[in-house]
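Assemble and predict.
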Amino acid sequence: MKVKVLICAVLASTLAITGCSDSSSSTGGGGTAGSGGTAGSGGMGGTPVPKGCGDVPDVSGYIVPNAPATATDDCTITLNPTGTNDNAQIIDALVDNDLTNGTLCLGVGTWDMAGTIGITDDPGLTIKGIGASPDDVILEYADEDGNCRGSKGINVGVDNVTIENLWVKNTCENSVEQRDTDGSVFRKVRVSWDDRCDRPSPPASCDASCATTEDCADERLVCDTTFTGQTEGTCIGNMTLNGAYGIYPTDCQNTLVEYSQVQGASDAGIYVGKCTGGSVENNIVYANVAGLEVENCVGVDASNNEAFDNVGGLFALQQDISGDMQSNTDVRLFDNETYCNNHPNFAKPGSAVAGIPVGTGLLSFAGNGVEIFGNQITDNQTLGIGMASNLLNCQVASSDCPPYTDGYDPYVKQNYIHDNVFTNNGTDPLGDFGTLFKILGFGSVGRPNVPNIVWDGYLENPTDVGLCLGEDADAAATVLVIGDICQDPINPSFEEYITCAQDNASTDQTPFLCVP
Amino acid sequence: MKKLSFGFLLFLLSIAVGCGSDSSASGTAGAGGSAGSGGDGGAGGAAGMAGAGGEGGVGGMAGVGGMGGSGGTSGPPALLSEWGLFKSIPDQIPEDGLIPYEVTAALFTDDAAKFRFVQVPDGEQIVYSDTERWLNPAGTIYVKTFAYPVDATQPELGYQLIETRLLVFGEDKVDTWTYVYPEGSNDDAERVNFGPVLDVSWVNALGETILLDYEVPSVPQCKECHSVAGRSLGPSTGMFNRDNDYGDGIGVLNQIDYMNSLGMFDAEPLPVDERTTYVSAPAVDTEAGLHDRVRSYFDSNCAHCHAPAPYGEIADKGLYLDYQSMDPGTGTSFFTWGVCKPHTSGGNGVDCEQSLDVVPGDPDASFLLCRMESVAAGERMAPVGRTIVHAEGVELIREWIQELPNLFEGVTPGCPQQ
């Protein structure tokens, strides 16, 4: 066992990642270990220099590499856009025909979408664009004034539906949603929101000088001082008005999201919540609040995704939402690239993601049995990987935690984090945690960067294992662990927390070297 | 007056599209006809009862509709009249066997007036329960027509009919159809699948002219909530236990007693006074108890999604506002009422920035109330069927949140995480 782990560590930045999943399977990801084969395809692991802020690509077009071609010769029905009220012809086709296991093809052009497309009757349906790429078949939910229409873009409510090779733009709410179904596939789905100032009939005060958002005199705009903290700024499009989620499967089983590209979501670009099985792979998410979230899932993999220019890149979350799916368990985030996620936070105030620290590479929140490996984590200015309990969340807000629902575990447990490549993270940490890290001596000029992994260190029981770094000290990530002793309610406010952290924080990785 | 946003263009378009997709369906999706036949069976039953269509119900539909070939392939009739449900559509007089009903606590839908009817096939019965939502046999049809007075200060001008929605129960599914009346005519309505937005104007009882962007739900939108086979969303004992005037020869009767006398239930209802009964018109009935009013209001306006399985398939975020879940006497969890409950995904829009659903004693800090006060798509609650604020409903819930600490032992003002 030891030899195997050592090999993994040495070759971590190349193809040995595949081998690692063998050793990892003993931690609890065992059920899904079969997908180790996919990891091998991530030939990008061979890139010698991880992508950073200098490598943020031009995203004017669909840029997901290695996307498979979409067949165009298997259409049951083919429709073409008319430019007016095209949602009507799509819904008529769905309602008036039995398209069970059928394929509805959408022709090249811009589809004028005045309302939501709901799929409620046709299991096995495929809806796909028949252009050369998603950019050729545009479902445009904004009207001629640039205002969104309808609610969601596409809403999937039956099993085994595939949405493929099209571009969903400017929806009011979630762009592509799926609820309570099995076996959905979202492949080559591009989702984006245009800047308000780049849409038809832009507000008159776009780019005007402002001191506050009131000066912009248009609810579609925000004064960028909101983000910069400066006293003078310009009026820019208010991204908070963008839909919450790009691709949003929830209460699902065996969902596959792949080769999709999401930009501009005011919550998460790709969100997988309360799902069992399934994977999210080979997607690109950028300029969202949260790039990619796996929340309250069991046995879901997120691999070979690229996240950049989000507020935070990748997330494994366990939230108290009551109901059946209270745990984020056996979730694996591997072979992803998460870099330069330093976007100002434009989340709706009061929402769960409004508190995401700007500059977060990857966050594991309260999950049990999350494995994070083979990722390249670069140029995220606050921290590379954060591990936080729900208790810390309350503490930061200097408030008591709500009573948790029965069955909810607010602690991080059994997180196995190994063989990741960290480069230049935590250089200038922001927000409340930035303050803490700087007080602790990290992330200021002349000081070392924030360690690779930061964990609150909270334990439910002293014998619980929260973090495992693998066995090899040389290969293990550097850590900053604040300590269980600082747990609320002993230190009920963030100010007291900081004081406690000064006395107790440790960078000793030795306690976390382990055989998983 | 009302006008279709797309006017005749829409009308023509839908006919043209209908024909086009029908022809493609006949070539490719032959199974469509049989899949749809469950619903047609119900329609046949309707026609049979009414004595209008008889045996050739489906064929007759095509003829009546004058839709040429499009009527014969599959799917429901193009015109409402083809269902044979009404003796008079303009006057909303049902055929025999289609039973009118009223509800205790109505869903708020932009102040629309509603004409409601239910029909159960001969020989079938609704599975009755005092507390659960009723289970409807295949072939059951609920019919609801949405209308506005032309001028509520001049009742003699009558109503402008906007749309008639049909909820048709099959063996293992629910079909939903929406028929929209053309501008200026109450004579008949045409099936529209996609959910148009209509310009509606009417004069309310105060003499104010009200302009609405009236949102007709699309067929898939209906099914987002009407998805549980056999279950209805509204019809339940609490919702039906009230009097109704059945007119000539019948007079005023309790609705459940009347329906029972017609053999529509599989079990004998409890005596009228022992039945679960929602507060009638809970938003304005200040005589009733505050929490009873709120339970009744929430049940009709929110519980079609905010309820435990199997009803609340959509909003399974743990906020349960159905009448049973809000019973203070049975193992109540204030948390599932939203008390101090953080919302996990709070919709879109920027009007509501509160992080907790309900903060006892502090309505303005309560996200739930804010979403009731919002009209922004993606933020407003309920999301479908409402584009304006229900002022009385908001006032009721505001008072309830304010009074929560006084109503229940164990609820204190504020929330720990505030």
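The CA atoms of residues 44 and 58 of chain B lie 7 Å apart.
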